[in-house]
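Sample intake sheet
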Amino acid sequence: MSVLLSELDQGVLTLTLNRPEAINAFNTAMLQGLAQAMRDAAENPEVRVVVVRGAGRGFCSGQDLREFEGKTISYKAHLKNYAGAIAGIATLDKPVIAAVHGAAAGAGLSLALACDLRIAASDAVLTTGFSRIALIPDAGMSYHLPRIVGQAKAFELMALSPRLNAEQALELGLVNRVVSVESFDEEVHKLALELAQGPTRTFGLIKQALRKSATSSLEEMLDVEAELQDLAGLTEDHKEGVTAFYEKRAPKFKGR
């Protein structure tokens, strides 16, 4: 059975981490599959949005340490597998949603933080986890977490590894919304479809602007915005949006 399931429907590519017996803990095959799935999604115009979720009772419990049992491990070498998956999500010029239920721990939380939006079921539990086994946060957590919660809060969460419930995560901005367990699948699907019917290339340009803003001055970002807006203005979806505005109707974007 594949450790990563893939399904494309109505422009929504759903990637399901499929090791439910281990709460979808990462192994090398899963990480490499996730990185490849992001490369494939980038090249497939039928993909308008990606949803990453977990099978069974949780999202992802982090790295499966049993993969290294009895072996001498080079974390530096192994983390290249994470780099491919995490960078693939961050640089994909299409929205990526993390659908989080149950546990999102360690590198599983890192994965969720790398996504553009996070929707959590009310049973979600988030924790950084790394310090509990005397490791530093990896898989991009040290980049994404302080940009979401600030430097001091990020240190607290990384050093003390508290278990946060869904409402606490929402208060900190770690997730965008919390929904009931019963309506979780429906709400994830609704959000994914809304994005899939939007101006996909514009969403990609928004992601580019946000990536550049992390290390740019205001003056530099004004130039970046001008360059990216030029590209947005050449899209078919922009023309459709303007036409729909004048015709007083909802636009029908095609992602082009």
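Comment: The beta strands are 4-9, 12-17, 49-54, 96-100, 103-105, 117-121, 125-127, 164-165, 177-179. The radius of gyration is 19 Å.
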